[in-house]
What we know:
By secondary structure, this protein is an alpha/beta fold. The chain has helices spanning 13-25, 36-45, 62-72, 87-95, 108-120, 123-134, 149-161, 178-188, 206-214, 231-234, 250-262, 288-294, 299-305, 321-332, 334-338, 346-354, 360-374, 387-390, 407-425, 430-437, 441-450, 455-464, and strands spanning 5-9, 29-33, 50-54, 77-83, 100-104, 140-141, 144-145, 168-171, 196-200, 215-216, 228-229, 239-243, 264-266, 273-275, 279-284, 308-311, 343-344, 379-380.
Amino acid sequence: MVTHRILIVDDDPLIRRQLEDLYRERKYDVDTAGTAEDAMSLLEEYEYSLAVVDLKIPGTDGISLTKQVRERWEDLDVIIVTGYASIKGAVEAIRHGASDYITKPFEREEILLATEKVLEKRRLLDEISYLRNQLSERYSFANMVSRNVVMHEIFSTIEALAQNDATVLISGESGTGKELAARAIHFQGRRRTGRFVAINCAAFPDSLLESELFGYERGAFTGAVHDRIGKIELSSGGTLFLDEVESISLPMQLKLLRTLEQREIEKLGGNRIVKVNMRIITATNRNLEDMVERGDMREDFFYRINVVPIDIPPLRDRIEDIPLLVAEMLRANPLGRDREITKVSNKALQSLMSYHWPGNVRELANVIERSILKTAGSTIKEVDIPGTINAPGASTAARFKDYDLPLKEFLKRAEREYLSTLLKRNRGGIATTAEAAMIDAATLHRKMKLHALKREDFKEVAKAI
Ligand SMILES: Nc1ncnc2c1ncn2[C@@H]1O[C@H](COP(=O)(O)OP(=O)(O)OP(=O)(O)O)[C@@H](O)[C@H]1O
Ligand SMILES: [Mg+2]
């Protein structure tokens, strides 16, 4: 699928020729250079997967060339060619980033094996550009991309839901794509000509939520100077999406339950009954069964909304999606497209794939957007990626001790850690923190309360530093 281009750097024309023939036979693209200077200008011009460099080249030596090359092209692999007498030099070159060395005189098989070993490791990097071309076909479904089995089952479920009006409960951590899935259900289904009306139930206190949902008639309460149509009525004929459904109070659950069962509403302050007809989709990042057990959710309400459950796995459980999502994000980002940023270095991708992503796909999108801003060339390098991802302790492996916790507790801690980091960075600023986390201010307030985080504490920290 990808043709590799190899650069041979050797002052001995015989060796150059020998290597060139060998690689061409194997269908690699090959260029040769006799000096370090020629090598550098070729590197500027073409994109190589591998440089095969003689340890002793005029003007410089293989070690400094390797160093120089690896500083500019983080992902370029280098194989050093050396005589027996200078193996020590080759080992030194490996310390400076060479991938392997071979000794002269070499066997054909030996050099081909070393080459293939090195190229095999480049799979991830090449995958990004490969996947970009696959996006429209196998791996994407209604604005969602994934190559994960569980996600593909979800795609099939959504496809099946197009044929009916079944009520759907979407669960998953923050940023996993719950709203995206809800929209897919609506826009794939036969109600797509109706409205998709979303309401974040956590963003309103009880009294306001009621008037948002049910609407009111003029004079229903002080300040109700006009009739107001509620979200439920608005969604009639289409889909009503109740986000963060866990935050609905018990009395409101009862009121909603009646509506869902009878398919009619009574507006506040009115005595008119309005018939409604819509699909209901709810979303939550909580375990609702636990809430029912604790008495925080009505059992009848839970059963009424949990007809078809869809549980979206967190990003850390489907890291194979990371290259694909990154490819999609690069393609969709106007700046990335303008500047033709089409690649992510292997090292950068590896650090993205070992991070634990408490904020899931949304956090990844955020990181890629910032990286695009920092990147100078056409490849996102490790240095372009925000520090938190690479920080010690950020990787899943480093957090292994946390894995003894129950899932819920683990997630709660991760969320708290994430929010306090962002609050610290933004010196307790609510608007800026909410923006960085890509949640709204009301959600941030609620989560801060849940985790007992006070903005004053973060102002202090900033002052102390
Ligand atoms: N599979 C996917 N493919 C492409 N983009 C995705 C995918 N999943 C999520 N996203 C993107 O990630 C972001 C977060 O998705 P979304 O808002 O649907 O998450 P959510 O689960 O509703 O989050 P929250 O719980 O915080 O409300 C959006 O920009 C969305 O487009
Ligand atoms: Mg959402």
